[in-house]
């Protein structure tokens, strides 16, 4: 199987994400304070802002790790706010973390294999009643995992423990795990942080190629070269609110954006 067989979101989902008036507080802090914007299908949307702007809190709310206090989050017109992470994931939204979270004691291949879309074998009666189907499904998953691992440039380390490879390679393992579920949209939390320049090029290449195949991305990143060269649109948050949204070059020249970065802890 080659990576060509992967279809972002399958045929049914476009990966459109709509966030409307999302609010999430931690005691007195309104970390996300009435945020509205959309990530258009097939596009790469950048989410930037000074430290503490609320970007990660918003990601956590979208991916189901945190609830919103109010507001709506829709994926392809279906409400996903209030759903637990595995439900959001199964609807076609995958995310990666700023600090990768692989199972360090398992190999890269095992980490990727942990995320098959529909694990027939997990239904215990299938192993008795439909052993052939289970074996075929496992073979298909293994082929898919291998194709994705190759696509992510990880073949050489597929037998190594995920805890023993570099931080940049772990970010690629996270991307590989996300791809196993054929998501329609992937949320990337600082894919470039702590990654050496050569691996960063690989990550950027993979994102571009997936995007050309129709994958939608929403990306938090402090690396401005990355944002400016990769994103179709940039949304800027500061103190929990969206303060600007538009084309990368317009956002960079926006006075309120410059002030937010100078006034806050510049990224
Ligand atoms: N679990 C939490 N409990 C209390 N306050 C929190 C929690 N998570 C985030 N916050 C606060 O919410 C605000 C937004 O934080 P968040 O991490 O979302 O910002 P960010 O834009 O992702 O920042 P960075 O770029 O540094 O990662 C900050 O004031 C932060 O201290």
Mind explaining what this structure looks like?
This is ABC transporter ATP-binding protein. The chain is globular. It has 267 residues and is an alpha/beta fold. The protein has a domain at 3-103 and 183-263: Rossmann fold, CATH 3.40.50. The chain contains ten helices and ten strands. Bound molecules: adenosine-5'-triphosphate. The site of adenosine-5'-triphosphate has 11 residues, from strand 2 and helix 1.
Helix-strand pattern, N to C?
A: EEEHEEHEHHHHEHEHEEHH
> Looking at the chains present, what oligomeric state does this protein adopt?
single chain
Number of strands: 10
Main sheet characteristics:
6 strands, mixed
The CATH superfamily label of the domain at 3-103 and 183-263 reads: P-loop containing nucleotide triphosphate hydrolases
Q: Number of helix segments?
A: 10
Domain ABC transporter: 17-264
Organism: Neorhizobium turbinariae
Protein name: ABC transporter ATP-binding protein
Keywords: ATP-binding, Nucleotide-binding, Transport
Give the topology.
Layout: E1 17-26, E2 29-39, E3 44-48, H1 55-63, E4 70-75, E5 78-79, H2 85-90, E6 93-95, H3 108-113, H4 124-129, H5 131-151, H6 167-180, E7 185-189, H7 197-212, E8 216-220, H8 224-230, E9 233-238, E10 241-246, H9 248-253, H10 255-263
Parallel strand pairs: 3-8, 3-9, 6-7, 7-8
Antiparallel strand pairs: 1-2, 1-4, 4-5, 9-10
This protein binds adenosine-5'-triphosphate.
Keywords: ATP-binding, Nucleotide-binding, Transport
Protein name: ABC transporter ATP-binding protein
Domain ABC transporter: 17-264
């Amino acid at each position: 199987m080659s990576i060509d067989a992967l279809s972002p979101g399958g045929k049914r989902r476009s990966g459109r994400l709509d966030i409307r008036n999302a609010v999430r507080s931690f005691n007195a802090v309104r970390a996300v304070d009435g945020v509205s914007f959309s990530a258009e299908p097939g596009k790469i949307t950048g989410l930037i802002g000074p430290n503490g702007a609320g970007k990660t809190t918003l990601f956590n709310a979208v991916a189901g790790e945190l609830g919103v206090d109010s507001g709506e989050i829709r994926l392809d017109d279906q409400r996903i706010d209030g759903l637990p992470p595995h439900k959001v994931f199964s609807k076609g939204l995958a995310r990666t973390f700023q600090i990768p979270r692989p199972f360090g004691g398992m190999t890269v291949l095992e980490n990727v294999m942990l995320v098959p879309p529909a694990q027939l074998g997990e239904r215990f009666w299938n192993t008795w009643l439909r052993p052939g189907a289970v074996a075929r499904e496992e073979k298909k998953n293994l082929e898919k995992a291998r194709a994705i691992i190759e696509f992510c440039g990880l073949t050489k380390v597929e037998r190594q423990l995920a805890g023993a490879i570099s931080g940049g390679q772990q970010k690629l393992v996270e991307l590989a795990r996300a791809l196993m579920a054929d998501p329609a949209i992937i949320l990337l939390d600082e894919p470039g942080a702590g990654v050496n320049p050569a691996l960063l090029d690989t990550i950027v290449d993979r994102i571009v190629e997936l995007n050309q195949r129709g994958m939608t991305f929403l990306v938090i990143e402090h690396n401005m070269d990355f944002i400016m060269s990769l994103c179709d649109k940039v949304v800027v948050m500061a103190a929990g609110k969206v303060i600007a949204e538009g084309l990368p070059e317009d956002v960079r020249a926006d006075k309120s954006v410059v002030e937010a970065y100078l006034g806050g802890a510049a990224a």
